[in-house]
Prior knowledge:
Elements: H1 35-43, H2 49-53, E1 59-62, E2 75-90, E3 97-105, E4 108-115, H3 120-123, E5 130-139, E6 142-152, E7 162-165, H4 174-183, H5 202-211, H6 216-247, H7 257-265, H8 273-286, E8 293-298, H9 304-317, E9 321-325, H10 329-343, E10 350-353, H11 360-368, E11 374-377, E12 391-397, H12 404-411, E13 421-426, H13 432-438, E14 443-447, E15 458-463, H14 467-480, E16 484-488, H15 503-513, E17 519-522, H16 528-539, E18 545-548, E19 561-566, H17 574-581, E20 592-597, H18 605-612, H19 616-627, H20 629-637, H21 651-666, H22 670-673, H23 675-680, H24 682-688
Parallel strand pairs: 4-6, 8-13, 8-14, 9-11, 9-12, 10-11, 12-13, 15-20, 16-18, 16-19, 17-18, 19-20
Antiparallel strand pairs: 1-7, 2-3, 2-5, 3-4, 5-6
Helix pairs in contact: 5-6, 6-21, 6-24, 8-9, 9-10, 17-19, 19-20
Amino acid sequence: MVKLRSGAKNTLGLLCYNIGMDLNLPVESLKGVGPKTAEVLKKYGIRTVRDFFYNLPRDYENFEAPTSISEIRPGKVVIRGRIDKITTRRARKRNLSVTEGVISDATGSIKVVWFNQSYRVRQFVPEKEYYFTGSYELKNGRYSLMSPSAALVSDVDFQSGLNPVYVAHGSLKSHDFQRLIGLSRDKFALIPDLLPTVKAGTRKDALFFAHFPNSMKSAGGARDYLAYEELFELILAAKLNKRENEKLRAAPIQFKLDYIKDFLAKLPFELTKAQKRAAWEIFQDIEKETPMNRLLQGDVGSGKTMVAAMASFMAVLSGKQVALLAPTAILATQHYEKLKQLLEPFKITVALLTGATKDKKNLKENILNGKISFVVGTHALLTDDTEFSDLGLVIIDEQHRFGVEQRQKLALKSPKGLAPHLLSMTATPIPRSLQLTVFGDLDVSILDELPKGRKPIKTEIIREIDLKERLYPKILETVAAKNQVYWVCRAIDDDPRTETISVKKRSEKLKALFPKLKISFLHGRMKQNEKDEIMEQFAKGLIDVLVSTTVIEVGVDVPNASLMIIEDAENYGLAQIHQLRGRVGRGSTASFCYLLTSGDRRPSRRLLELEKSADGFYLAEVDLKLRGPGEIYGALQHGALDLRIASLSDTKLISRARKDVNVFLQDSENMLKYKELMQGISKYQQITTLN
């Protein structure tokens, strides 16, 4: 059982625990939330009273011991003072306003700057005191307090000296959320319990002290419970999904050893042990009448397509059709060409269905009448007029790129009353602790070794000041050897608030430096057909240097690309850099990845780990500890996991939640008793289900 820490005592009055409020009421039913405010809140997913109360502070500012201006040093500071001489001006670059003022206390004055926050001019009353929390740093040759938060001294609750800080949503800033939460303070006593595994009143106390802490200890205790609550919901959803999948029926696909031996004998290479293990796990699954629901995860270049080809080979031999869904036309085309080469010698017809496919009508007729055994495609596979004769196996590549409804739509194209076997693939290494929690009892196969002959990618951290001496010659050397270069930038457009160089500017600089090289750029705002065309040109060797944002993170196989440069490397997650690095090293040439940093500071642990290790699973575990689940799972599900507090590296809390979920599931009546819990886990069921 999870209890709040001792600092979190109940100060909400003597209201009975069984008096509860309906948390599903619309957010506008709360005091102070009018139609305009409700519209902004709903835009950011805060639609109900529950959403509002669970919009927790991202941090707490401690105003008990502010720094006097005379003693200020660079870094994060809290200052108590008055502000005047505040003005806003437009910067030379469009779409940017600069608001500047002077903060003073009894010991001196400092400059303060905000970007794109012109409302600050109206926020302050010159004779009143405020707490300012921000970073005191050197900018344009002068120290200033950069974009601090501000709280009126008279509004701060000095019982704790803590000021909750909320993420701004559109026009609603942190102080707006403080005000709105304050207006609903008396409602917290009416919040009903959610979980059966904690003492009565735990949930309302936790939410109250998360928003109104009387100490950091009480805030910590509140967050402990809410983290446990999240994990309980997530694990329960995963286990219920597993139960539902076990109720479905599928057509068994017979394993034929002699045919597989013949298939492998024709390959020009030997499978890795990991590929053999994963293939055998899949063969065992698809022989059952319960549909396979397996995730095949492997580092970049580990041979997932080959394993999928073997499973498809077995399915077609059993008279079943196979569909492979890929997120982009160019990736679908790449899969099609590989699979056609592997399977056509066995008289298996492989077809490609994308938006650009000609004579779709004839192709779809051949899919429906069973003349085509294996179809590879994009979203075009999901249209209502794409019907199958006997779909027995569905393969989804980069499964995180597709929504649950899209995945289910393809699964429903199997014969009536039967579900297809489902194999999902991802190149994002998932930490084992994350597998255990997010996917519950989902079957997972791991390709944790690379095919023989693959040369390791040499990774090196390099400072920006060494560009001229180190990187520029390397680019020329790479292109002279008939190989290609990726250069990754963070931003699409220039931002004068930072020193980050955009894709467009970097591309222009490289063109000026290397006029004889063919240089192009790529970013996410371009139309899909433009992106596909540029990637196709790069794949054909028509571009020497491709300057891009992280849009290339999941892309086509370009064996000729042997040099990856990642600019502002400190600003990326470890797992993301590893994915980007995997875009090179796919051919027989030695490949290199340079992590470009600015300044003289020692490289972070993230970059040092990348420099020494190429093991995606090890790096994913490190990233989980350093950054939490957002970066890793965000890459898998576009942030859909959205854990507010829980850390998936907290194995003790995970273990406790799993144990309590197992107890909960022993009583079938619990699903009916705890209605809010069962409604709440539906979002997690959508995330964790793969069928």
